[in-house]
Amino acid sequence: MRSFLIALTSVCIFIQGPLKVLANPFFLPQNLASRQSSTIKQSISFTVDCFRDFGPRILAFRFDVPGGNSAERCTALCHSHGYGLAGLEYGSECWCDNYMPYGQLMSDSDCSFTCPGDSTELCGAGNRMVVYQDSAATPPSPNICITWRDSSSFINNVLQAIPKSGSGPVTKLYAIPTNPFTDPIYYTIISTCPAGCPYTDYYNFGLYGNVIQSYNSVPYPPNVGDSQAFTSQSSVVGYAGFCPKPSPLSSNPFIGYPLLSVSGHTDLWSLCTNITAGGRQDIVYSPVANHPHYTESACQDVWIQMAPYS
């Protein structure tokens, strides 16, 4: 059985706001080192780092470790089940997965619980997980849907437009109404909220199964050339063609906020300036020429990234 070998690395993770590269500070603060000799194990594949675990678990599958949890035993167990990531939390917990769609990087000192199977090692803490990656594992394809996680994993999301060109700002997206909410049935689209926009709280998009919802509104199928539309009409069955896919944007193919896919595509979204709505930028599915609301050549091709709602 192959063991996990650790090497230091950096992880690029997308967060709300500008893109940031999060470096690995592999040290124990002096005051902590003076109180204990246990450390995060540094000799197994490479340590991705100490992460905050929250809400839906950052890794999906938990296993019991015979003989007590330790870095060697947990990583070997995850490897034996075909997983590329292993996580140690709360001392005794061993978690495995092939993709980590979210997780906030924390200081190593946060992962401070001693491993029950090896008192010289640290196995995370409460809501803190030390994550290891198998250097021999094959990362998931960015073309597959993340279907192996439970239904609660993506029920609260912030959508962000990321320029496919690799340059430009990360743009937060909102559910913008296209008619008054006082109407018996109202409609929304995925758009931006420029200065003075009253809908700054309308940014939680929930993915339930394969249906993405916008404030109790369900989606229509995407229509080439138009904005992605939602309706509150109760008789409409939401289009079940959405899913999250592993992100090709991160420097680590096992970690990163996933991309929103519809009808099998993550690559047909664009951010287009709506010339009939005061220059607001709307998300359009596969823009077309001669559209009454935008100029195709002025549209910017984007990915839609799914970050955790908070």
From TrEMBL:
A Pfam short name: WSC
Coiled coil regions, renumbered to chain: none
Superkingdom of origin organism: Eukaryota
Signal peptide: 1-23
Keywords: Signal
Residue intervals of the WSC domain: 44-135
Name of the protein in question: WSC domain-containing protein
Source organism (scientific name): Psilocybe cyanescens
